[in-house]
Automatic annotation (TrEMBL):
Top EC class, one word: transferase
HIT domain mapped to chain residues: 8-115
This protein's name: HIT family protein
Protein keywords: Methyltransferase, Transferase
Keyword Methyltransferase: yes
GO molecular-function terms, A-Z: methyltransferase activity
InterPro entries: HINT, Histidine_triad_CS, Histidine_triad_HIT, HIT-like, HIT-like_sf
Enzyme Commission identifier(s): 2.1.1.-
Cross-referenced PROSITE patterns: HIT_1, HIT_2
Source domain of life: Bacteria
Motif position, Histidine triad motif: 100-104
């Protein structure tokens, strides 16, 4: 497992700084986010230092998403949220602050729970031809 000395999440993995760890196995760790956007807000990370989705190995992603439902269901059983957002920010432009891949599990309790998430619907700006062009541009870069 690779670690970076200046990475706060690597320090948590190495038990160099404290965290409220709620789940841990050989490859992953989940701990309570100190920001607590909503009650139960938890971070799920790989123990290996992989900066973002662009660096994340497929095997790491598979392991993380095998654990995510387990942690989500524990949060659901503990706090009975009405829903849950899974959020992942990649790169500074996408508001990533800690450059070690992490998935936020944010329990939702209603519109006034402190978490605001807004999507802009730009469907009127894109024709079916535009969508087909986007698909083509991405598809040529996919590798099986």
């Amino acid at each position: 497992m690779s670690h970076q000395e200046d990475c706060i999440f690597c320090k948590i993995v190495n038990k160099e700084i404290p965290a409220a760890i709620i789940y841990e196995d050989e490859e992953t760790m989940a701990f309570v986010d100190i920001a607590q956007v909503t009650k139960g807000h938890t971070l799920l990370i790989p123990k290996s230092h992989e900066e973002n989705i662009f660096e994340l190995k497929a095997s790491t992603a598979a392991t993380l998403f095998q654990v995510a439902p387990k942690v989500a269901n524990a949060l659901k059983a503990a706090f009975s949220p009405l829903g849950m957002n899974l959020v992942n920010n990649n790169g500074k432009a996408a508001s990533q602050e800690v450059f070690h891949y992490h998935l936020h599990l944010i329990p939702r309790y209603g519109e006034e729970d402190g978490f605001k998430y807004h999507w802009t619907n730009n469907s009127r700006k894109y024709s079916q031809e535009d969508l087909a062009n986007i698909r083509e541009q991405v598809a040529r870069h996919l590798k099986n």
